[in-house]
Amino acid sequence: MHLMTKRFLSFLAACWGVFQLNSCKENTILPSDLIPAIDNISTFQSDTFSVISHNIFQDSALTGGLSGTSRISNSPTYYHALGCILADPAFGKTSGAIHVEVLPPVSNFAFKTDYPGTTRTIDSVILSIPFKSSYGDTLNPQFQTYRLYRSLKTFSRDSAQYDFTRDSFKTSDILATTQVNYANFRFDTLYGSVKQSPTLHFKLASWFADSLQAQVDAGTAGAAADFSSFLSWWKGFTIMPDTNSGATIGYFDTYNTRLKIYYRHTNTNNLLDTVADVFSFDPNYCNRFNSIFRNYSGSVASSQINSNALSGDSVLFIQNEPGLSGLIQFPYLYQQENVIVNKAELIFTAVSPYYNWVDTTIYGMTPRLQILATDLQGADRIPDDYGVFGTSFVDGTRKIKSIGGVNFIQYKFGLNQSIQQIISRKDSTFRFKIMGLNLGLPAVYRVLLQGSGSSVAALRPKLNIIYTKIQK
Description:
The protein has 472 residues and is mainly β. It is 14% helix and 39% strand. A hairpin with a 5-residue loop joins strand 16 and strand 17.
């Protein structure tokens, strides 16, 4: 355990002991006349500080390339979303598209043949991407149609590609089309005694095979001469979903994308032979990214986005980035007299019974929220609490809480450091932002929380503080 954390927990334990014995304000858990003052030290608990919460759109998820020290394209555990959820009643429409690149296995690549361009016949070219997981309605899914295109734009792996980055392609030049039914696609398949993991397959049009063969046969004058020449010739593949139907999004392991070329050629015995060459995604040269599309038109959330309601929105619609997030403000906290913050918890309670929306059974509920500090210009940073006390202390995981004998789902954040800074620095502009924790699956999960504008006061967001007054 971190030394600062140990010291803090020891101090916190002492403060709790003092809290059980010492005098408090009217809003304490125990009546003030039952807690005598000791050694002129007074510890107080308050949950009366105003919390104002609004729904805002958060659109800055890095899905490829490089930003600072983060290179998503090199992460084998970052997966990309493909597909469409057409009609989530609470959150509307979500869809995902993929850009991915491949390279020959070596520079100066040549097919396995003694007589290039003479007896070689390419039977088929298959682009395959392993399946990781799915999100949405997998019990009664609609068929998903995916189309493969040639990317026309260069996306450097040394620049950042976000969820709002869009690929360029000709919709008339379809390389391949495939359909997926997630009711059975998500399961392994046995071929004889061999287990085959689910994989997305595209059989490419014959014109691609002809074009590739011509480039390879051109030798040093062709695209296969070196990696940069190949990427200049073939900038990558774009995979687009049909966004007019669907209830599921699939997550695919684009890091292990393979382009398999099956062909026949004349071998050294002057006989026809069948062989395959494999082009792969190479993280040292290639790039990959995810484009995410959100549309809230006609959804329940649409009326509570950027509402600027004085008391805040009644419901917080929280998604994993990119998507809706909660902007949390404390308009009067900075006016609090200087105190020592012993414990500060920001608590959110999920909407129940979910307004009869199919939240938990189909779309799941966010297992963990993350919290960021954000300035008036919308620039986010990680709160100091994570570095001082650790992720497990800040928490944000989904838990069950009994209130009046009824079980509710809550998310709780430990924010001693940040709340202390607001009070000590008299910072009237400090704000938090909450959203689903990024687990390498962009746009997965969501949750509905009671907002500060909720009619149920007991379930609104709360800031609970235990503090000690500074003796003057």
